[in-house]
Design a protein that fits this description.
Number of domains: 1
Strand content: 5-15%
Number of strands: 5
CATH architecture: Orthogonal Bundle
Structural class: mainly alpha
Shape: globular
CATH class: Mainly Alpha
Largest sheet: 3 strands, antiparallel
Radius of gyration: 24 Å
CATH superfamily: SecY subunit domain
Number of helices: 17
CATH topology: Preprotein translocase SecY subunit
């Protein structure tokens, strides 16, 4: 592994990508500590951190912003507006035919959809920024702009514009990582946010009670034991045998070999977890508009935690597993490619029968993979509800699934880049 990492830094192009990715993540973490202008920082920090340590909506939103919300920083909106915009655009492609056709136009269509996603992200970020302003000025936190020397209305505008600019900058940083760095920028930012909260959660867990140290060690041991299971789930495949017919081209006999078509058990990766989390935390984001309306706060907290959250999490993870798999894997196109290259599945007729067979296999292996992800995601959340141990929240199933999934995807990209330069991968 160490030799693989050293080989990565020997390739100039790959070294630049790695250093760029690290530099952007460091810049993002610095922005998470930069407070909004005019905020009474010490007062707000203590109040927001106390709220973020609870099981409610604020605690969940703070976890996925990497603590930026509890610090009332310029990056307190986090990556969630961008993720929500991507979810909306992908679901609209399944509903609006013109967007679906645009997605099939190749690079030009992808650029247009990306542009629409950016506009939608800005709109959602503006709504969230106004909501957070209502939250900060509510009776619970009650910030005031006294001492700034500027009118309250102007300070409100400055706070909203600063949060909006922070969300736009996060979106840009994520896209730069995806285009010029290593890995998926959106996933890596979420990965950095979760990792950033672990040290504070560990300290808080140990200090909570006499059993805090023992419980923290137990949580870490269980997490270490679960990681191989997640890796096994991520790497699991169903291999469909494929036979290629013999063809005579001139004086040469082509084809005749046997191979297989690999279908991953978890084709969608960590996307269902991220999408489900974004959908479930959206009511909490809306609830910040109405900090003094009890039923809105109760609804946001109920969807963000408790048995309603557990049931919806399982349902949404399974739904998005099927939804995203259907978007990235097309059985009809795969069957057509096999037919054109002279390949066939033994015992299955080429064409529509092959497409139906592949689709049936895909449906059958997607369900157990999605249910396994849902169980790993929900069980730690249930334990956190009963124990209130902050380390369980940081090392929860959703967090571990995202961290392991993102790490595996990033390592896979790094290995492919190394093999292009005739080097061995990270793992031999």
């Amino acid at each position: 592994m160490l030799s693989g990492i050293s080989n990565a830094f020997r390739v100039p192009e790959l070294r630049k990508k790695l250093l760029l990715t690290v530099a952007i993540l460091v810049l993002y973490r610095l922005g998470a500590y930069l407070p909004l202008p005019g905020i009474p920082f010490t007062k707000m920090l203590s109040q927001m951190q106390n709220a973020s340590d609870t099981v409610g909506a604020i605690g969940v939103l703070n976890l996925f912003s990497g603590g930026a919300l509890s610090r009332v920083s310029v990056f307190c909106l986090g990556i969630m507006p961008y993720i929500t915009a991507q979810i909306i655009m992908q679901m609209m492609q399944a509903v609006i035919p013109s967007l679906a056709e645009l997605a099939k136009e190749g690079e030009s269509g992808t650029r247009k959809i990306t542009q629409y996603t950016r506009y939608l992200t800005i709109g959602l970020a503006l709504i969230n920024a106004i909501g957070y302003l209502f939250l900060f000025k509510s009776e619970q936190y009650g910030i005031s702009w006294t001492g700034t020397g500027l009118p309250d209305g102007l300070m409100d505008v400055i706070a909203v514009v600063t949060m909006l600019a922070g969300a736009i900058l996060i979106m840009w940083l994520g896209e730069v990582i995806t285009q010029r760095g290593i890995g998926n920028g959106m996933s890596l930012i979420i990965f950095a946010n979760i990792m950033a909260g672990i040290p504070r959660s560990l300290i808080s867990s140990v200090a909570t009670s006499d059993m805090g140290t023992l419980l923290s060690i137990l949580v870490i041991l269980i997490t270490v034991a679960v990681i191989p299971l997640i890796v096994y789930l991520e790497r699991g495949q169903r291999r469909i045998p494929v036979q290629y017919a013999k063809r005579v081209v001139g004086r040469r006999v082509m084809g005749g070999q046997a191979t297989y078509l690999p279908i991953k058990v978890n084709t969608a990766g960590v996307v269902p977890i991220i999408f489900a989390s974004a959908i479930l935390y959206f009511p909490a984001q809306i609830a910040v508009f109405f900090p003094d309306v009890d039923w809105m706060q109760a609804f946001g907290n109920a969807v963000s935690s408790g048995w309603i959250n557990w049931v919806l999490s399982v349902a949404l993870i399974v739904f998005f597993a099927y939804f995203y798999t259907s978007m990235i894997f097309n059985p009809e196109e795969t069957a057509d490619n096999l037919r054109k290259t002279g390949g066939f599945i033994p015992g299955v007729r080429p064409g529509s029968a092959t497409a139906a067979y592949i689709k049936s296999t895909l449906d059958h292996i997607t369900l157990p993979g999605a249910l396994a992800m849902a169980v790993i995601a929900v069980v730690p959340t249930m334990l956190f509800t009963f124990t209130q141990n902050s380390l369980i929240q940081s090392f929860g199933g959703t967090s571990v699934l995202i961290m392991v999934g993102v790490a595996l995807d990033t390592i896979s990209q790094l290995e492919s880049q190394l093999k292009m330069h005739n080097y061995e991968g990270i793992f031999k």
